[in-house]
Design a protein that fits this description.
This protein is an alpha/beta fold and 337 residues long. Helix content is 38%, strand content 22%. It is built from eleven helices and 15 strands. The protein has helices spanning 3-22, 44-50, 70-83, 99-104, 126-139, 156-159, 171-189, 215-221, 273-283, 309-318, 320-335, and strands spanning 39-40, 54-55, 59-64, 88-91, 113-116, 144-148, 193-201, 211-212, 224-234, 243-252, 259-266, 270-271, 287-290, 293-296, 306-307. The strands form three sheets. Strands 3, 4, 5, 6, 7, 8, 9, 10, 11 and 12 form a ten-stranded mixed β-sheet that branches. Strand 4, helix 4 (99-104) and strand 5 form a beta-alpha-beta unit. The termini are far apart. The model has no long low-confidence stretch (mean pLDDT 91).
């Protein structure tokens, strides 16, 4: 046996020992660039900005100012995960989730969404929430967990003292680090997803813009980060207000480079897919505008003039097949699939 053959045999023996002791943990380096598992859709605009969507086995942080639609977006993701037959859990740490909001989310099945919050019997603190998440991830492979929000988490030591009493301010950041060190490898291996909703707060250091509450552990452990610094109501002048458009910056994505996208909301109905589709289709020249008139380049509508963007959106709401064709074209043009 040659020297090269002996070295090859030694390497093979080492790999066999690793497999015997630790299981199937060896991955050829040439497949690391290929994402294993499914991708959960978010919204059309955000999917394009993210490079495809929300990959299994990752964590996402949604940070924003008050009223920017963070909870609506998180529930929209949960509805998409339900459509993929995933178990969905909603940790309502702020205790503000209402049935009225659940009813607004298209395709969400509230009866299959497990909500976890403090009760008269047990006031949950940060340690409790993290242990609950660990239990869910360990026992429900491929699940999705929404935490709304990590900004209100407090440690047991902080909850046990009176207002004004001295307390260790580093307890919660330390706990966050411990949680992510323990759970992120498990979340990835079991192809689960974690959505962390949090707040933006003023930068007390005086340099840079607002910062997300949750510390560096959450920031570094999230494969996707989406930040909303503000939103605009629709219409921007006059009343009644029918919805809002939140602009999200994406400084970090698991599937692509940083980007930004809009998240339109229709009051009482949740994510406004028709508005999102209409705006993006215009940008991609699939809907053409001449003055107040619009033309959809689809074969079925290319000879029809539609007055006003609201009427275009109504056509998209009524003609589901048309909306699907435009959606498919857009994703193919931007994502190549």
């Amino acid at each position: 046996m040659s020297k090269k053959e002996k070295e090859t045999a030694k390497i093979a023996g080492t790999l066999d020992t690793i497999r015997k002791d630790y299981g199937n943990v060896l991955i050829p380096a040439d497949v690391l660039s290929e994402h294993e598992g499914q991708i959960i859709p978010v919204t059309l605009g955000l999917d394009l900005a993210l490079g495809g969507g929300f990959p299994e086995g990752t964590a996402m942080t949604i940070a924003g100012v008050t009223g920017s639609g963070k909870s609506t977006l998180a529930l929209t993701i949960a509805a998409n995960a339900q459509a993929m037959d995933k178990d969905c859990f909603y940790i309502d740490a702020e205790a503000r989730l209402r049935s009225e909001l659940l009813a607004c989310i298209p395709n969400l099945n509230p009866s299959k969404l497990s909500v976890i919050r403090s009760s008269e019997d047990r006031f949950l603190v940060g340690e409790d929430y993290f242990n609950i998440i660990d239990t869910i991830v360990s026992e429900r492979k491929g699940c999705l967990i929404v935490v709304d929000s990590t900004a209100v988490f407090q440690s047991e030591s902080s909850a046990s003292v009176k207002f004004g009493e001295s307390k260790r301010m580093t307890a919660m950041p330390t706990l966050m680090y411990e949680f992510f060190r323990k759970c992120m490898a498990k979340i990835h291996a079991l192809k689960s997803n974690l959505v962390l909703v949090t707040h933006l707060q003023a930068n007390v250091g005086g340099y840079g813009g607002p910062v997300e509450v949750g510390g560096n552990a959450q920031k570094y452990s999230s494969s996707i980060r989406m930040l909303c610094h503000g939103s605009q109501e629709i219409p921007d002048t006059g009343t009644p207000k029918t919805g809002r458009i939140s602009k999200f910056k994406i400084p970090k994505s698991a599937l692509g480079p940083p980007g930004e996208a809009a998240f339109p909301i229709e009051y009482g109905k949740g994510y406004d897919y028709a508005r999102d589709l209409a705006e993006i289709a215009q940008q991609m020249a699939l809907i053409e505008k001449t003055g107040a008139w619009y033309t959809i380049t689809d074969d079925k509508y290319k000879d029809k003039k539609i007055q006003g963007i609201d009427n275009v959106m109504e056509v998209l709401r009524q003609d589901k097949d048309l909306a699907k064709r435009l959606d498919t074209q857009i994703r193919s043009m931007v994502l190549g699939k």
